[in-house]
Specification:
InterPro entries: Glc/Gal-6P_isomerase, Glucosamine6P_isomerase, Glucosamine6P_isomerase_CS, NagB/RpiA_transferase-like. One of its GO terms (cellular component) is cytoplasm. GO terms for molecular function: glucosamine-6-phosphate deaminase activity; identical protein binding. Helix content is 33%, strand content 16%. By secondary structure, it is α/β, with parallel strands linked by helices. It has a single domain, classed as Rossmann fold (3-Layer(aba) Sandwich), CATH 3.40.50.1360. The strands form two sheets. Strands 1-10-9-6-2-3-5 form a seven-stranded parallel sheet. Strands 4-8-7 form a three-stranded antiparallel sheet, covered by helices on one side. β9, α7 and β10 (232-237) form a beta-alpha-beta unit.
Length: 258
């Protein structure tokens, strides 16, 4: 893994966005894996600005979401399709079309079948060229919670109590309003992306980043499977990197390449 440590969230987000912009400049029409939550918002802001400047476009691309809540109303503002629409869809954003945005069907009464269909749709599209990721405070990526399979495919997942608590901020702070399960790309699915860019910010992510970068590969910290990815870039702020032991080496490697 390549590790970039930045003074601020904004600097790390800009670095992540520039990786994406550069990739799409060299590979127009590439397929982007998109994430929700707070971590990628700074990336999307930079991508929108780059689109306005004529440096970036998803007009000819497909984008596949990592996950979607099961049973959330189609018009709920925190439904992940709606979140991604607001961030990316339209000529006033990144040029991504409504048809180009693909999300799991959280309204399907057969979530297992919906998960299998979504996994198949990613493969039929030729896979993900570049996947944006965040990481939960308990080490989950997408909604792959601790204790699950490290080689899972897209599946129906129960959300851990910590995840529900973390996501309550998007539901007026009310735990009862947070959906309790989701359709999520599996770790095996995510690992098939040809390139991965993960961002994490704040002190509450330092344990997860410590394990992700320097811990053993373990289902207890699902994100650690990324240690086996051939092209993973991890971009964090100082607070998220606070417990890393080899920061001088990570900084030296980053400066040498960039």
């Amino acid at each position: 893994m390549e590790i970039g440590i930045f003074s601020t969230e904004a600097e790390a987000s800009k670095a992540a966005a520039e990786i994406i912009i550069e990739h799409f400049a060299a590979n127009p029409g590439a397929t982007l894996g998109v994430a929700t939550g707070s971590s990628p918002l700074g990336i999307y802001e930079v991508l929108r600005a780059a689109h306005a400047e004529g440096r970036f476009s998803l007009a000819d691309s497909k984008a596949f979401a990592l996950d979607e809540y099961v049973g959330i109303a189609p018009d709920h503002p925190e439904g992940y399709r709606n979140v991604l629409r607001a961030q990316l869809v339209g000529d006033d954003k990144t040029g991504l079309t409504e048809e180009g945005l693909h999300t799991p069907n959280g309204q399907n009464p057969e979530p297992v079948a919906a998960a299998a269909e979504y996994d198949a749709s990613i493969r039929e599209a030729g896979g993900i060229d570049l996947q944006i990721l965040g990481i939960g405070s308990d080490g989950h990526i997408a909604f792959n919670e601790p204790g699950g399979s490290l080689v899972s495919r897209t599946h129906h997942e129960a959300l851990a109590e910590q995840t529900v608590r973390d996501n309550a901020r998007f539901f007026e702070g009310n735990l009862d309003l947070v959906p309790k399960s989701a359709l999520t790309q599996g770790l095996g699915t995510i690992m098939e992306a040809r390139r991965v860019v993960l961002t994490a910010f704040g002190e509450n992510k330092k344990d997860a980043i410590k394990q992700l970068v320097e811990g053993p590969i373990s289902a207890h910290w699902p994100g650690t499977i990324l240690q086996m990815h051939p092209d993973a870039t991890i971009l964090v702020d100082e607070a998220a990197a606070a417990d890393l032991e080899l920061t001088d080496l990570y900084r030296a490697r980053w400066e040498m390449k960039h």
